[in-house]
Amino acid sequence: MKIGTAPKYLLDTNVMLEAFHGEEPIASRVKSWIESGEIALSAVTVAEIVSKASVIEKEKLDLLVSRFGALAVDQVVAEIAGKYRKDFARKKKRVYLLACFIAATAKLYNLTLVTRNYKDFPMKDIKVLLPTSIS
Predict the structure, then answer these.
(1) Residue ranges per domain, the chain?
(2) Mean of the per-residue pLDDT values of the chain
(3) pTM above the 0.70 mark?
(4) Cα separation of 135 and 120, whole Å?
(5) Where does residue 27 fall: left (phi above 0), alpha (psi -120 to 50 degrees), or beta otherwise?
(6) DSSP line for 49-116
């Protein structure tokens, strides 16, 4: 992590893409968080964006990564993600492994996960918010 200010928000892939496309009010909100150094990026989100990014989206992503870096999937994140996956595999609501990695990153770094896919993150030990619910 390259940021000087402690980040508050871990942005999910869908929120990043909405911001890149200028969708309001998300784009303005994310821009404000970037200017104040309040965001963090997961290596998983970086991978998801790179896998389907246009040239312009990739350029925007590269600028953010050069400023903020990306929080790595290390052994601790992997173990937390594995526990989430295992816990939710036994329940009706299955959780995607990539979502577990993103949630584990939010947990480890005590970040609020901002996502449009609220239902993909049923974990009770992290804070998950819709992007429109944050001022």
Answers:
(1) 9-133
(2) 92
(3) yes
(4) 23
(5) alpha
(6) HHHH--HHHHHHHHHHHHHH--B---HHHHHHHHHHHHHHHTSSS---HHHHHHHHHHHHTT-EEE-S
Summarised one tens digit per residue, pLDDT across range 88-118 is: 887 767 789 999 999 999 999 999 999 999 9
DSSP state of 5: S
Q: What's the distance, Cα to Cα, between the start and end of the chain in Å?
A: 24
Q: Which residues are 114's β-sheet partners?
A: 11, 129
Structurally, at CATH architecture level, domain 9-133 sits in 3-Layer(aba) Sandwich (3.40)
In the numeric block, which tokens belong to residue 65? 């990564």
- Helix (H, G, I), strand (E, B), or coil: what is residue 25? coil
Backbone angles phi, psi at 128, to 5 degrees: -125, 125
The residue type at 117: N
